[in-house]
């Protein structure tokens, strides 16, 4: 008789154990769903805040710190100094990881690269050398002519070197495609490209170009600051701003 009772008791324990496991699994699934919802909401809020910053950052917040002549011609601030610095740290961490155990030559495209290259490199944790090239494709207009000319070459032989090109803005992509071919023809060990802004809406469909590190996707606006200029003005603004159309038309 006691054996029967023991078997029934064991059966009940087994059923209760299955019930507990099922309940725990349901609870875990509920927690995962709630966490995903919260994560999604947080991501949405972050995107909305970023959108507000991109679209609605008023120039008057920084107007007193820049020439009045320039402030009056800016429509909005596209990327703030704080936003850029945070993104540069992320880019530098990725570059340092990708080049771990190697030394690179950071090649800046003058003159637009000056702020981007300087502030990106200060966050790298790998050894690097700095060099510059200068090419011409814009002149004094608002769009690339597409006729790329090399005005200043490297001060060293790139053969066998790991080259990282740094550029402020990639527009049609023709300049970077020209430089990529140039360095590959010089037998560099590897070639990667880092840019602050990528204006995909302006990319020439005939250009085959791989950009390895991008700070931000840029809307099809005429942007200045953080290395970018219009007729040699605005270049060293600590943020990226959008010019009013009447300022360049």
What does this structure look like?
This protein is an alpha/beta fold. The chain has 6 helices and 9 strands. It has a 6-stranded mixed beta sheet with strand order 4-3-2-5-6-7. The chain has a 3-stranded antiparallel beta sheet with strand order 1-9-8. Helix 5 links the parallel strand 5 and strand 6. Helix 3 packs across helix 4. The chain is extended, with a radius of gyration of 27 Å.
pLDDT below 50 for ≥5 consecutive residues: which ranges?
Answer: 50-56
Share in helix: 40-55%
Determine the strand fraction and express it as a percent band: 15-25%
**Rg, alpha carbons:** 27 Å
**What composes the largest sheet?**
6 strands, mixed
Helix and strand string, N-terminal first? HHEHEHEEEHEEEEH
**Secondary structure category:** alpha/beta
Please supply descriptive tags for the structure shown above.
6 helices; 9 strands; extended; 6-stranded mixed β-sheet; 249 residues; alpha/beta
Question: What's the quick description here?
Answer:
By secondary structure, this protein is of the alpha/beta class. 41% of the residues lie in helices and 22% in strands.
């Amino acid at each position: 008789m006691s054996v029967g009772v023991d078997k029934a008791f064991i059966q009940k324990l087994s059923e209760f154990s299955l019930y507990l496991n099922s309940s725990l699994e349901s609870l875990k699934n509920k927690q995962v769903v709630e966490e995903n919802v919260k994560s999604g909401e947080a991501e949405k809020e972050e995107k909305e805040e970023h959108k507000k910053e991109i679209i609605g950052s008023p120039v008057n917040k920084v107007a007193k710190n820049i020439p009045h002549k320039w402030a009056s011609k800016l429509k909005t601030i596209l990327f703030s100094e704080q936003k850029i610095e945070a993104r540069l740290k992320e880019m530098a961490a990725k570059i340092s990881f990708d080049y771990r155990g190697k030394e690179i030559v950071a090649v800046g495209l003058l003159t637009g690269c000056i702020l981007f290259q300087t502030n990106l490199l200060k966050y790298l944790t790998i050894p690097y050398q700095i060099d510059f090239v200068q090419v011409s494709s814009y002149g004094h207009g608002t769009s690339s002519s597409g006729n790329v000319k090399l005005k200043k070459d490297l001060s060293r032989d790139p053969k066998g070197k790991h080259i990282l090109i740094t550029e402020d803005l990639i527009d049609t992509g023709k300049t970077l495609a020209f430089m990529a071919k140039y360095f590959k023809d010089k037998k560099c060990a590897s070639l990667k490209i880092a840019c602050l802004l990528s204006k995909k809406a302006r990319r020439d469909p005939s250009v085959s170009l791989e950009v390895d590190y991008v700070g931000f996707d840029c809307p099809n606006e005429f942007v200045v600051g953080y290395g970018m200029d219009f007729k040699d003005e605005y270049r060293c603004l600590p943020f990226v701003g959008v010019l009013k159309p009447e300022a360049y038309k």
